[in-house]
Amino acid sequence: MPHADSLALPSDSLSKHEFYEHVCTVAEALLAPASPTDPAANWITVLSNAASLLFGSYENYGSKFGREDGRRVNWTGFYITPSLMTRSPTSAAPSDPTQLLLGPFHGRPACNSVSLRQASPSRPVGVCAASYLAQETVVVEDVNARPGHIACDGVTQSEIVLPLTVRVRRMGGAGSGAGEEEEELKVGVLDIDCEGLATFDDEDKVGLEQFVEVLKRVIRWDA
Question: Which of 8, 81, 97, 195 lies most in the core, judged by the most C-beta atoms within 10 Å?
Fold first, then answer.
């Protein structure tokens, strides 16, 4: 099957649960490495196709994200930690970045970076930074009503952002009594924007969190 055909939906009348279940199944098939050493399983390649898969799938899901009724998803993509640009997160020491950098995306040009620091005591961090720092999904019904929102595109009205992490094994420290310890490293966020107000809900949150789990399974972070 041509890779572009992965955007086809079984029906436009799917429930959101069925939609995300389908997208996750397609993602597993499209993004999974051909072998344990497949170089195409690196994070840049996988996240590039992941952003395109989400964007195109939303485009074809007109009953819930239709252009005609103003609920079109206009941007899907990733912001990542600077350390991921230069080395594998599985070998990098834990860091405390001050910003996230634009990664693979689908849509109009976006901000090159987002700050993880407050500009002033009265201005909180943006949505991507809030999700990254709190390590939780953030749903914004009206971006213009949220203090600290970074307007990369003026047509965006609502947004959902999910943290992206990688689970790595490290040697336990002195006195830990364990050979290896598991650790969750923060590597970035998945950001999705929509032209309509209050578009994303709990069903989107659950479905996209499952999608992120697929990404964590298929990416070879050491590639």
Answer: 81
Rg (alpha carbons) of the chain, rounded to whole number: 18
Distances in Å between the Cα of 173 and the Cα atoms of 88, 118, 160, 178, 193 are 21, 33, 37, 8, 42
pTM value is: 0.89
pLDDT confidence band for 152 (50 / 70 / 90):
confident
Q: Which domains does the chain have, with CATH numbers?
A: 3-218 (3.30.450.40)
Q: How confident is the model at residue 203 (pLDDT cuts 50, 70, 90)?
A: very high
Nearest to 74, CA basis, from 158, 170, 177, 190:
158
- Degrees, nearest 5: CA angle 68-70-74: 105
